[in-house]
Design a protein that fits this description.
Chain A has 324 residues and is an alpha/beta fold. Chain A has helices at 5-19, 43-47, 59-71, 83-86, 90-97, 100-103, 133-137, 150-162, 212-224, 242-252, 267-279, 301-307, 311-323; strands at residues 2-4, 23-27, 52-54, 75-82, 113-118, 143-145, 167-172, 179-181, 195-198, 203-207, 229-233, 236-238, 255-262, 288-292. Chain A has 13 helices and 14 strands. Chain B has one domain: Rossmann fold (3-Layer(aba) Sandwich), CATH 3.40.50. A six-stranded parallel beta sheet of chain B has the order 2-1-3-4-8-7, sandwiched between helices. Chain B has a two-stranded antiparallel ribbon with strand order 5-6. In chain B, a hairpin with a 2-residue loop joins strand 5 and strand 6 (186-187). The chains are: A alpha/beta (324), B alpha/beta (330).
Amino acid sequence: MRTTYREAVRMGLREALQRDPRAFLMGEDVGMYGGCYACSKGLLAEFGPERVRDTPLSESAFVGAGIGAALNGMRPIVEVMTVNFSMLALDQIVNTAATLRHMSGGQVSVPLVIRMATGAGRQVAAQHSHSFEAWFAHIPGLRVLAPATLEDARGMLWTALQDPDPVVIFEHAMLYAMEGELAEGAGAVEIERAAIRRPGAHVSLITYGGSLRKCLEAATQLSQQGIEAEVVDLRSLRPLDDETLFASVARTRRAVIVDEGWKTGSLAAEVSARLCERVFYELDAPIARVCSAEAPIPYARHLEEAALPQPARIVEAVRGLLHG
Amino acid sequence: MSPALPPFLDRGGALARLRELMLIRRFEERSAEAYSAGKIRGFLHLYIGEEACAVGTLRALTPDDSVVSHYREHGHALCRGIPARAIMAEMYAKAQGCSRGRGGSMHLFDASRRFFGGNAIVGGTMPLAVGLALADQMQHRRRVTACFLGDGAAAEGEFHESLNLASLWELPVLFLCENNLYAMGTALLRHQAQPDLAARAATYDMPSRAVDGMDVIAVEEAARAAATAVREGLGPQFLELKTYRFRSHSLYDPELYRDKREVEEWKKRDPIALFEARLRAESLLGDADRERLAREVEAEVADAMAFAEAGTPEPVEDLLKDVTTPREGR
């Protein structure tokens, strides 16, 4: 069927609420408003205010309430409007959700799913545009997912809900309107492995989330120039699927990592370090990274575009590796 | 003339409460010694002076209720029934500790007693308590979630957010604010524009009152009434327990911020001495009882220390165990 990423997220939410009576959705404007990005439109009418709960603007309290409810038998799905606002709940996520199991000597688990929008591209400036996925991927005790396709937007949520530990799902804001085909019977997907979205022999483009489309576009352009790029979608940002990454780079012998986060201390840095540690002798060229410019994302369109990874920059990075 | 004793204070009930007060006191005195001897490391925050708050409030709960606490929680853990042995072993960093030696003094856990931790982030437990209570409300359980916090937490955003959310959703939370007048070294009047914390809680449209936290009888009566209301589905309640810690904030603290005379004044209202005097006046306690309780408590703490001493460290190979929940294929 022809549908959108937004609709795929909504299908996932509806399935969760239908299948598991312990599941409920909670967050700012998820109910009457229908979700800031309209992902939960219609769910309040279908499931009622007990299970689709509008919260006050209290990120720390409602994320923490999700942790407490998860400890006490529920399966909360907490929506934080954007990753930028999740900073206000970071203490609960990092100091509580991620630590409780280990710190208690294994006595309690926190089966909580936190969804949030991330990323730039809508000219909403420096407090609504950043990508902090790497911060969360830094934290032991969390699982971090980045659905970049309709299938993953539809199917990752259910699998995440089966996880006994906290899972953070990042939905890139520019993907919500993305249209595509989704199988009628599409459902839960595995969340352990990276995926090869396009095979290729000459270079591995390693990416996730909102940058996947840009990499696929770059790969198409490169193909027209006789360069076959393999596009690897990380899907899971913690834990990273080293096996798939290493196998791809061992085949192509070149790697460009594309990450909308800032380069310094980024996921791209982590992937790059792992490749250096484990497949260094397979490489025919240095690893390259295409990341966001090291500045707060600006409002003006031309500046925002210049700040973000774009297909042209990816193509340029690949050509640099191949032709020096 | 004191008012009549409440019905729960028959001779057996009275002695049981006195024993708990004495156990916390002695447990912590010996913990401080073990700290000086290097047996306990990290931070050690003593509750001495505040014991009536734990004894009175936890007596108002049932085993099915939930408890979350802050980092000065030895008393809460003992009153919740976590064995002194398991707590002392935890502070000795032994695998037999109630958190396998991974948490230490500030992170005592016992899921079987629904004691969901000492939390060392001030105010950090309040959202957690809201969520525990939300799950009970959604699953139609008549449980109370007791949430301990200190006066310092009243300056955190979580205080406002959590009281608001709990009241808005009429959640079964009993907020127990132990106001010992200092947020670490900063006096209440230096950190709160409105130092009447019960009044602040009341602005969230929540029943709220201040209680003499040095009087174990007053604390228990207030806690019982509040817990009953919460259990009956009347929404959250807030108790401000006015108390004082006799010892320093932690054992690193040189106490430059308060006058020794102030400490001495408060010691005249020692919760154990106050309760003991009342029981003697009511002829519920004699010298022989007092000596027997002291012997029992001494033996229990000595046993806990011997148990902790004999405990074993968790194998280093288990360092990564339980970062996430074990599951098949991993």
